[in-house]
Write a structure and sequence with these properties.
Blueprint (H helix, E strand, L loop, with lengths): L14 E2 L4 H6 L4 E2 L3 E6 L5 H14 L4 E5 L4 H10 L8 E4 L12 E3 L8 H15 L3 E5 L11 H17 L3 E7 L10 H7 L2 E7 L4 E8 L8 E7 L2 E5 L15 E2 L4 H6 L4 E2 L3 E6 L5 H14 L4 E5 L4 H10 L4 H7 L2 E5 L7 H15 L3 E5 L1 H6 L5 H17 L3 E7 L20 E10 L2 E11 L3 E3 L3 E6 L3 E7 L3 E2 L7 E2 L7 E3 L3
Parallel strand pairs: 3-8, 3-9, 4-5, 4-7, 5-6, 7-8, 15-19, 15-20, 16-17, 16-18, 18-19
Antiparallel strand pairs: 1-2, 9-10, 10-11, 11-12, 13-14, 20-21, 21-23, 22-27, 23-24, 25-26
């Protein structure tokens, strides 16, 4: 949260809905009544649409609203807004673009061409229209349209200050849009209007994703950072990043058995509530199967679980699991297991988080399964470090609720264990179960072992395992007489007598 929140006045502040509830969340409640806001970003980022949501919220509150526009006609604006289910037909329109007539008969207000009037009179005409209509809200789209009638930047800034002062005196809540080019610098005139605004909302769009940020909000402060934004069939959807909050709940390290006797033996009895368990290993080793084994065991023991599939469909996951003897479809039909397909390249990390937490609120599960982390890093676009931070936030919230989180993660190497997890995520994990291929006497074998467990004892040995039809995960005896498994090539040794260890890292 910004330090501006500390400077908030003690008197009550009247708030105005932006028309996008999650944006109001970023604004710590909404826009402040009678103040001026700047929405800026590159072309196609959704600036006009955000302003239209703002006007629609005013109409829903039985307010008079004015749309001051200069780049599109009233008809084009209405058509484009309606396509995204935003109806602003009842707004008053003021066209300040060139080639328009003043005060048309259809209740759409228009100004004469800029070349035909002095700039001062031009601004006065706008003020007269506002005085006559007496709106509660105004959208100026874009504010730079006013610049075209000024002879220089100084006059533009002077006239802009006068207009903003006028709007504040009339207690009109104003949103103005501005298009930024890619070459914008801090030394340009753009910062002048930022300083005049009470709040700034930045929108961005690159080849990967849409983002929204609120760097400034006088009076209330804001949730800092960048957040997810999508334009869907009903307009703009905002997805604030998940920020863990302090939880007074006492941690209860209750063990949840996986339902697989041998796997529970490796884990010292199972996994604890409120912990994150990674199932890590190379492609094709059996990570998803191990995760499905744990899900099935938890649910069959009377628990409930949610699963999120990034790498295969529900039908494929269920079919593959059932050939291994895991009754996934039956558990789904009972309502104790809910699975969701997450299509790559569709959701941001924040949208995925919101979906998970909404389902957690609905189902109150004992466990949440994410299969797999590599798909998560592809689907919610962004750089790896930001995605790791988002995953950290989500898992912390789930842990605070006493939920066991299980995540499959793909290792880069086919054999050996160079790192327990990918992309510096090991610090998130309380437990790490590692599956790997290992060469023993010239043959390729499979090994499973626990390489990290924050709580309690665990079996430190690597065991042979197989994935067998009708049986699923079959864990066999340990590699007692070999070493070098973590390097991928084993040699024989004399077995140790002690096999238990405690890892408090």
């Amino acid at each position: 949260m910004s330090d501006d929140a500390l400077d908030a006045p003690t008197e009550e502040i009247d708030l105005v809905a932006s028309g996008i509830p999650e944006l109001d969340e970023l604004l710590n409640g909404g826009l402040v009544w009678g103040r001026t806001y700047l929405v800026q970003g590159g072309s196609g980022t959704g600036k006009s649409l955000l302003g239209q949501h703002f006007l629609r919220a005013g109409l829903d509150a039985d307010e008079t609203v004015v749309y001051i526009h200069g780049e599109e006609s009233r008809q084009d604006i209405l058509v484009n807004a309606a396509r995204l289910d935003v109806d602003i037909r009842d707004a008053e329109f003021l066209d300040i673009g060139p080639g328009t007539d003043f005060f048309a008969e259809d209740k759409s207000y228009n100004l004469v061409e800029a070349s035909e009037v002095e700039s001062e009179q031009f601004t006065q005409d706008i003020k007269h229209v506002i005085e006559e209509v007496d709106p509660a809200r105004i959208l100026i789209d874009p504010i730079t349209q006013l610049q075209y009638v000024e002879r220089d930047e100084y006059q533009y800034r002077k006239r802009l200050q006068s207009l903003i002062r006028f709007l504040r005196e009339r207690q009109v809540t104003t949103v103005a849009t501005r298009t930024l080019d890619r070459e914008r610098t801090r030394e340009t005139r753009h910062d002048d209007f930022e300083s005049l605004s009470d709040g700034v909302i930045n929108l961005s769009l690159d080849e990967h994703e849409r983002r929204i940020a609120v760097p400034k909000h006088r009076g209330l402060g804001q949730i800092d950072g960048t957040h997810g934004l999508e334009i869907r069939e009903h307009g703009i959807e905002v997805y604030p990043q998940t920020i863990p909050k302090h939880d007074d709940r006492t941690f209860d390290p209750e063990l949840i058995p996986t339902g697989h006797e041998a796997l529970d033996g490796l884990l010292g009895g199972g996994i604890e509530r409120g912990t994150v368990s990674f199932i890590s290993g190379p492609t094709g080793i059996g990570k998803s199967t191990t995760g499905a084994q744990i899900l099935s065991g938890i649910v069959e023991d009377g628990g409930t679980a949610l699963g999120y599939l990034f790498e295969e469909s529900i039908d494929q996951f269920a079919h593959r699991s059932e050939t291994l003897g895991l009754p996934i479809s039956e558990l789904r039909a009972q309502g104790s297991l809910a699975l969701t397909e997450t299509e790559p390249l569709v959701r941001s990390a924040e949208e995925f988080d919101r979906h998970v937490l909404d389902q957690v609120d609905e189902h109150a599960p004992d466990a949440v399964f994410v299969d797999g982390l590599s798909g998560y890093k592809i689907s919610p676009q962004g750089d790896d470090q930001r995605l790791v931070r988002r995953l950290h936030g989500l898992t912390r919230v789930l842990k605070n609720r006493g939920i066991a989180v299980i995540i499959t993660d793909e290792a880069d190497r086919l054999t050996g264990i160079p790192e327990a997890t990918s992309t510096n995520t090991s610090y998130i994990a309380d437990n790490i179960v590692f599956l790997t291929y290992v060469e023993v006497d010239g043959e390729l074998d499979r090994a499973i072992g626990v390489v990290k467990k924050r709580l309690g004892d665990f079996d430190s040995r690597f065991h042979r395992f197989a994935i067998e039809s009708g049986e699923g995960l079959v864990i066999e005896g340990p590699f007692d007489t070999v070493r070098g498994i973590m390097q991928g090539s084993s040699t024989h040794r004399v077995p140790d007598e002690s096999h238990q260890t405690t890892d408090q890292s």
